[in-house]
Design brief:
Helix content: 40-55%
Structural class: alpha/beta
Number of strands: 11
Radius of gyration: 24 Å
Strand content: 15-25%
Largest sheet: 3 strands, mixed
Oligomer: single chain
Shape: flat
Length: 325
């Protein structure tokens, strides 16, 4: 299990203006799960444990080998990222099929007895089953807003958003290669993201002593920032997350919330009491804070807003909450 800071240049800007005692970035937890083998859905290898680990995660980062190297043996004897992707897809789909069929048995009885809610559930389960039987993941099934909650309650593995990481050699780090194009083509119909990383090269870069050396190495291969930064941001985006800040002399801190969260929900991330006793939020847009340089000057310019319970927090908002318990 790795806890990774979310790289955010806005934090550095705020730090230079506020000069706090400490800075706390947002974090993402990444779980490295042992590789999946054919037959995992039937318990082969670390099958059930592996699938249980995936069930607890919010999204899947699937690393695909997209480079040739005779010194590094591939478990299936050749480099073929599409085959590797399908191996995992099929195992997850088979496990979901098992889950769907079990649930259908229960629901069908209730639907036949005239339960309308069960009839709706049965209809959705049958559509998911049809998709899975044709090798299509549940995330590709078209559902209505009303069915979304129902779909979430099934806790299926193939509804989780996926980020495909194409692991390439150093010379393909900037523009990818033919394997990467194959992957992009194969995932077109999925609600998934694809990024390119030269993992071995990135590992070498992290071992360099100074920030300057690391930047020089990156520039040599045509990159502006480490792949890890790109990866974490892509994962953040995939999970529909965003950041708001609290900024004071004690600390400048990034807080993680979901896109579309209201001010009380954002306050609840700091402490549940903040959400329960929420009165109002004082909000400064990030760009205004940077333009005026301090909270006092923002206030003078009349750019601090007071928002109520309905306010939808925007990425980068700087917030103070008023609450009573």
């Amino acid at each position: 299990l790795g806890v990774v800071n979310v790289p955010d240049p806005r934090l550095e800007k705020l730090e230079s203006l506020v000069k706090p005692e400490r800075v706390m970035p947002a974090t993402v937890e990444i779980v490295d799960i042992a590789g999946l083998v054919k037959g995992a859905s039937k318990g082969e290898g670390l099958g059930n444990q592996f699938l249980g680990n995936i069930r607890e995660c919010n999204a899947i980062i699937h690393v695909l080998r997209c480079f040739e190297n005779d010194n590094i043996v591939h478990v299936d004897g050749s480099v073929d990222p599409i085959r590797d992707k399908e191996t995992i897809d099929i195992e997850l789909q088979l496990k979901d099929l098992e889950t769907v069929e079990k649930r259908l048995e229960k629901v069908t009885r209730a639907a036949k007895a005239g339960d309308k809610k069960a009839a709706k559930e049965m209809d959705l389960l049958n559509r998911i089953k049809e998709a899975l039987l044709t090798g299509v993941s549940a995330r590709a099934v078209q559902i209505s807003d009303e069915e979304k909650e129902l779909m979430d309650s099934f806790q299926l593995l193939t509804t989780k958003p996926v980020l495909y990481v194409c692991n390439v050699d150093e010379k393909s780090a900037k523009n990818g290669n033919a394997y990467v194009e194959q992957v992009k083509d194969a995932v077109k119909g999925e609600d998934a993201e694809v990024i390119v990383l030269a993992v071995a090269t990135e590992a070498d870069i992290t071992e360099l002593e100074s920030y300057e050396e690391r930047q020089m190495f990156l520039e040599d291969i045509g990159l502006e920032e480490p792949g890890a930064s790109k990866l974490i941001r892509a994962a953040y985006h995939l999970l529909n997350l965003q950041t708001y800040f609290t900024a004071g002399v004690k600390e400048v801190r990034a807080w993680t919330i979901h896109q579309g969260d209201t001010a009380p929900q954002a306050a609840g991330v700091i402490h549940t009491d903040f959400e329960k006793g929420f009165i109002r939020a004082e909000v400064i847009a990030y760009n205004d804070f940077i333009t005026y340089g301090s909270e006092a000057k923002v206030k003078e310019a009349g750019k601090m807003r007071v928002e109520g319970k309905e306010y939808i927090v925007k990425d980068g908002d700087i917030m103070h909450f008023r609450f009573n318990v």
